[in-house]
Amino acid sequence: MEKEIEYRKLVVRPKALEDVKEARAHGDLSENFEYHAAKKVKNQNESRIRYLERMIKTAVVLRDHTAADEVGINKTVTLYIKEDKVEETYSLVTTVREDSLHGLVSVESPMGKALLGHKVGDTVTIVVSDSYSYEAEIRKIEESGEAEQARLRNY
């Protein structure tokens, strides 16, 4: 987060300010699309900086208290979904890093909660809704090694 803040302050901010200044010089601001677009980019950058600074200020460090052979935060889990007869791999992460489309599942999600603390060979029931759940067998658990590289969600 600190690296992103530094990049946004030292690289993105000066460019965004220059773009606004240049677009302003083109004349009538009420019909100047470049000006409005440049202001939008500048404001989004400033908003992202504030968001990241607030995240750092209010952050709480989470410790994984699970054993090496148990599913926990920042671990990658290979599951066999019995219903579909297919293996799937997920990494369990915090809510600010979750991205289910890329296999990053929050420990606060129904799947994350169902898997936490279980071991290889365990079969867990993942409850999706009141009317649907499915069984998954844990086939493999590994350290993710992604904690430092994983991107934060935008907002």
Question: Topology of this protein?
Answer:
Elements: H1 2-24, H2 33-58, E1 75-81, E2 86-93, E3 104-106, H3 110-115, E4 123-129, E5 132-143
Parallel strand pairs: 2-3
Antiparallel strand pairs: 1-2, 1-5, 4-5
- Provide the helix percentage: 25-40%
Low-confidence runs of at least 5 consecutive residues: none
Beta-strand content:
15-25%
Shape: elongated
Please state the CA-atom Rg, rounded to the nearest Å. Answer: 22 Å
Between the first and last Cα atoms, what is the distance in angstroms? 13 Å
Q: What's the average pLDDT?
A: 87
Please state the structural category: alpha+beta
Give the number of helices.
3
Number of strands: 5
Q: H/E order of the elements? A: HHEEEHEE
Strand order of the largest sheet: 3-2-1-5-4
Quick summary:
By secondary structure, this protein is an alpha+beta fold. Helix content is 35%, strand content 24%.
Describe this structure in words.
- This protein is an alpha+beta fold.
- It has helices at 2-24, 33-58, 110-115, and strands at residues 75-81, 86-93, 104-106, 123-129, 132-143.
- It is elongated, with a radius of gyration of 22 Å.
- Helix 1 (2-24) packs antiparallel against helix 2.
- It is 35% helix and 24% strand.
Output the keywords.
155 residues, single chain, 5-stranded mixed beta sheet
